[in-house]
Amino acid sequence: MQTILMALMGGLAAILTNKGIAVFNDGLRPIIPEYVEGRMSKRDLAATSFAMSFGLVIGFGIPFSLSANILLIHSILLGTDIIGTWAPDSKKGMATAGIVGALYGLGLMYGLEFVVNIFEKMPVNFLSDLGKVGDPIVVAFAAFPALAVAYQFGVKKGAFTLLAAGIVRQLAVTFSPLMLGGLEVNVNPEGMALITGMIILLIFATREKSSSSNVGDLVSVFSERVARIKKNLPLLALMGALVAAATGYQILAGDPISLNLMKEGALNEAALAALARGIGFIPLIATTAIATGVYSPVGMTFIFAAALFLKNPLLAAAAGAIIISLEILFLDNLAGLLDRFPGIKKAGDNIRTAMSKLLEVALLVGGMNAANAIMPGFGFLFVAGLYILNEIGDQPIVRMAVGPTAAILVGIIANVFALLSISF
């Protein structure tokens, strides 16, 4: 079933991109109408897609997937973006995109397993140490609501939010497990800290209101593009079902934070992280969908949270289809809501920024810890050096991927040293 899921998911995602229905890369989505409406050639679209997505697959998706042996969604859907845009715009091209996309999905699934098996047979098996990359994330992710508050409402309110989240976390550590009516209930400290921070952020955000209707005007101006998304609802719902089912099988994760929590077996905490991320992506997905007529194959990413909460692939598939359908059906209403509460829209942007900044720090620390566990001393030197070189070189590798990538390279270097009988 997992094999079938990965093949169907890869094939359908490539077809959706080929037909201009859904694109995963947020930066590529606004470019699709340029081709659909005849202002860009197929060749230019394909080249743009490759330039925007290939580096992220190699430098972002694959390293995270290897660190946990769980596929990060970026690995597959950024690849299918490339496949879909390169396939010809015809029935034959659509079939080609579907077949190549399916093979790509299968290749990722079994290729990752193959690479893991190779690493296990190396003189220095560094996969267990590589898992340390995600250790800081498990605790640090609860701090991002405070960072989002600081970005939007100032450092003082951000510090207050961080302090409140920290106090709640320590109370959870002190009093967990709770006894409720003779039933023992374990309370996750990081989960409680996250919920506290998100509540404070939403309280601050909902206090900002507006009487204007800029986003509502956007809906009326792009009504044809909204109608195009709704016309393709069945295909998008099917895509949501496939992604949610794969997440329910725990072979797929929607973001690095939930991926590392899934690796630790903390599914409820992973679901909370995915839910918070979904809130952050509402404004981006909603506004770009309305303006372009192109949706995301994972919708507003709530399907990942639903799948992790349900923990059952069949129920997750049904939930995934329903959630994306509701997102599309209420797209107009959602735009109006965002317009009435501009603070929530800004909060979404700040949540994404805060999560990115937090991941950059946590993954750099995690990468250094993992690399140093593999090669004591040299690991710290190599990761720090690579990070600085990456900054000087205008970031050929995205910042948050430097730590995991460097840790993998240190593992390979350790094996080369072992083969050459060089001590480390």
Structure description:
It is a single chain. A hairpin with a 2-residue loop joins strand 2 and strand 3. Helices cover 77% and strands 2% of the residues. It is an all-alpha fold and 424 residues long. The strands form two sheets. The protein has a two-stranded parallel sheet with strand order 1-4. It has a two-stranded antiparallel ribbon with strand order 2-3. It contains 21 helices and four strands. It has helices at residues 2-18, 32-36, 42-68, 73-86, 91-121, 127-130, 135-140, 144-153, 155-175, 189-206, 214-221, 223-231, 233-248, 256-263, 267-292, 302-310, 313-329, 331-340, 342-374, 378-392, 399-419, and strands at 71-72, 178-180, 183-185, 252-253. The model has no long low-confidence stretch (mean pLDDT 85). It folds into two domains: 1-123 and 213-340, no CATH class; 126-210 and 346-420, no CATH class. The chain crosses the membrane at residues 46-73, 94-116, 136-153, 187-205, 233-252, 272-295, 302-331, 361-389, 401-422.
Which H/E pattern describes the elements? HHHEHHHHHHEEHHHHEHHHHHHHH
Tell me the strand percentage band.
under 5%
> How many domains make up the 3D coordinates?
2
Distance between the termini: 44 Å
The parts where pLDDT drops under 50 for at least 5 residues are none
Work out the radius of gyration: 22 Å
Oligomeric state, counting identical vs distinct chains: single chain
In spatial order, strands of the major sheet run 1-4
What share of the residues lie within helices?
over 70%
Structural class: mainly alpha
Q: How many β-strand runs?
A: 4
Task: Tell me, rounded to a whole number, the average pLDDT.
Answer: 85
Overall form: globular
InterPro entries: Uncharacterised_YhfT
Keywords: Membrane, Transmembrane, Transmembrane helix
Pfam families: YhfT
